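Notes from the pairing session

We agreed to fold both candidates in a single pass and log them together. This is the raw record for the first candidate, unedited. Please don't reformat it; downstream parsing expects exactly this layout.

Candidate A
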Amino acid sequence: MNLLLLGPPGAGKGTQAKRLTEELAVPQISTGDMLREAVKKGTALGKEAKSYMEKGALVPDGVVIGLVEERTKAPDCKSGFMLDGFPRTVAQADALGTMLARQGRKIDHVVAMEVNADELVARLSGRRTCRTCGTPYHIEFTPPKKPGICDKDGGELYQRDDDKEAAIRQRLTTYDAQTLPLITYYAQRGLLRRVNGLGSIDEVYGRIIKAVR
């Protein structure tokens, strides 16, 4: 089964992706991880990607697609894969479809985790980090024993700038602008599976499994 998982920041996509890949026995393919690995190994595509990354430029779609193609041909992808962080645009989705067709494959399901903006803001703005050791907390879900103090080393807990409400809402606006065309693209092809992202981890996971089974 070849999956694509979409979801805004704070939707719990990472948690669900981990469980899905374990149950379905398919690897999670992160384009960010692939780029770093290709650069580290010094492959032809890695060297090309590095030339753009060193200039602070975006790596061209053609290079990223080449990396995805190499990765999906690996033995552990024989039974399927889950794409993370790609595609981000309709052009990339078209290129991905063409590339997979060359392999005689296709995307089977695109799962869109849906959570309203106010809930996402509440989730993300509750995050706190220890200033000394970096241990993460959440004031509601994983609070420290003493408010504002790290359990491990007594360090001060602080809120990162990108976890403040104004920054979160800007990230969500950007996500919506970038992702809405993809939602439409895959819906028109009958591949989109909308899943309510509210509820416990197990409840959301159950909805995802039901949608892709």
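Candidate B (folded immediately after A)
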Amino acid sequence: MCRSPWLSSQNRNFPNRMGEGSLAWLASGATVAASAVSMTITDPRPYLAKIDRARFDALLNRSSRPAPEVRTSEPTLDVAPAHVAATGGSPDAPWSVRGGIQKFGDNIDTDAIIPGEFCHLTKLDELGEKCFHFVKPGFARRARDGRTIVVAGSGWGSGSSREQAVWALQGARIKLVIAKSYAFIHKRNLVNEALPFLIVKDEAFYAAAGEDSELDVNINTGEIRIVGSGKVFRAEPLTAIVKSLLRERGLGPAVQGHGGKVVERLAAGV
């Protein structure tokens, strides 16, 4: 295995953080920038000594001089031809998911979903095997048939922003997550990685949906039917962009498929 060394100013570090086989050392932003010149670890102080302090203060708005004008431009992307989306149909075409519930309470954090000691794993199936390793032993084993729907309370995915929490759920073959609310960054990770999720705030649903209950869910319309009782509930509607990203199998494939027009296409549900 190739072990690639990295010097980074990121705020987290563990084996494989920068890719499988990588080794990362943490340093200040100045040290990283200075080291990038020669690709060896370099003391940034000689570079810092050459800085025009008056200009530096101005850049940080530490003087009365106006801040420099910032101009932005969009790069031209060379992308592959448009690909086939996950459902292959219109934004509101039926997209049914059926499975049994594994149920959780409130404030399930990402360290519960995938403990930090396993975040060095890079294969989805390995992460999936460690999903809820400590807080719900047997979760991964029960989910192996690919029919598990997670139902949880408020604050699902709080804590760390680690992407591995979503990858672990995918590795465990989770079909769908239903919760009262989500931590913002974790919800964005769900969207970006195209793991379907719904928001249901109706307490009657949580009272009726017990462990191992069978659900029949239409992700596009938000209709949820408890198979045993026939009771029907409604999730909050997904936005057009979220629906499109789920159909496109995530943000990466969407950018590859639509290039610079990705936001426009996703918002239009194309």
